[in-house]
Amino acid sequence: METVVSGIRPTGNLHLGNYFGALRNFLTMQNEHNCYFFIADYHSLTTHPTPADLHGNVRQILVEYLAAGLDPEKSTLYIQSDVPEVVELYLFLNMNAYIGELERCTSFKDKIRQQPENVNSGLLTYPTLMAADILIHRATKVPVGKDQEQHLEMTRTFGNRFNRLYNVDYFPEPQAFNFGNELVKIPGLNGSGKMGKSEGEGNAIYFADEPEAIRKKVMKAVTDSGPTEPHQPKPEAIQNIFQLMKVVSAPETFNFFDEMYNTCQIRYGDMKKQLAVDMIAFTEPMRERIKSISADEAYVSRVARMGKEKAQENAAKTIREVREIIGFKRF
Ligand code: TRP
């Protein structure tokens, strides 16, 4: 059995891409492994130092995780800031994280380009905080996408460096959790790339979106003037709406529009109308669960408290041991 850690920043609601990217796999992982799924609210301050509703954002992700089927009895679902032990480990790791390696990190270089007015040291040490999240549970597996691989590599570096410096074999080397070919790529609605909150307004379908909002977004999806010859390869934007249809519609529906495309009879307005109907139906159960869980204040609080307790128990043990390894002693 592996110890798995995964964090998500509370900077937006969950969308279809999150679900097919990782969340769906978490549902099976929680049955097989010792999983810690947390909401990285400390991390969100590196880019959003004064969030309008931090607590609301965190709560929303927690509710959506539960609605997606994460089971607080099977895995540990918690909020990062509920476990300040993480911050102490972050401090220890920072003592041996070198400015040069932090500055070379791709995500740091991207972020300082995106927010030149706020190049804070939290951004620089984002990878040490993430390493602390992972090492605090002495995790062996971390489900990460391509964009997080460098952070995971740095986590191994920091863990190994700690082991070497203090001459211990304490932190295991966390590896990427590979979902194999179970990942379904979910494209966005704006014609290029994958579904994501950073890809602009209207690109992502959120589970919390109301049907009318979904319909509007789908109807605005980028298309073109249609094929001019039979069996023409599909341009990316068209490929994207077909891919979305493959995920949410019945196979016959997909095949029908595919045939229409191949015979140059397609009308994208009709296709998008159908896609909107199917998208709304597909997301309906999630939307309903989000609403009912969100209304249950007592349940949400109970889940958060339970997660805090379970995560803190393990984190406190690590901190106790790390302090001892470094040489802090009680008087
Ligand atoms: N950096 C991750 C992201 O942006 C979020 C994250 C924070 C994380 N701590 C983590 C992911 C620990 C996995 C493990 O997606």
Topology:
Blueprint: E1 3-8, H1 16-32, E2 34-39, H2 41-44, H3 54-68, E3 76-79, H4 85-95, H5 99-104, H6 106-114, H7 121-124, H8 126-135, E4 141-142, H9 149-165, E5 175-176, H10 211-219, H11 236-248, H12 251-262, H13 268-295, H14 297-326
Helix pairs in contact: 3-13, 4-8, 4-14, 8-9, 10-13, 11-13
The protein binds tryptophan.
Tryptophan binds next to strand 1 and helix 8.
How does this model look, in words?
With 331 residues, this protein is mainly α. The protein has two domains: 212 residues, Rossmann fold; 95 residues, Tyrosyl-Transfer RNA Synthetase (Orthogonal Bundle). 56% of the residues lie in helices and 6% in strands. The chain is built from 14 helices and five strands. The strands form two sheets. It has a three-stranded parallel β-sheet with strand order 1-2-3. Helix 9 links the parallel strand 4 and strand 5. Helix 3 packs across helix 13, helix 4 crosses helix 8 and helix 4 runs parallel beside helix 14. The two termini are 38 Å apart. Tryptophan (TRP) binds next to strand 1 and helix 8.
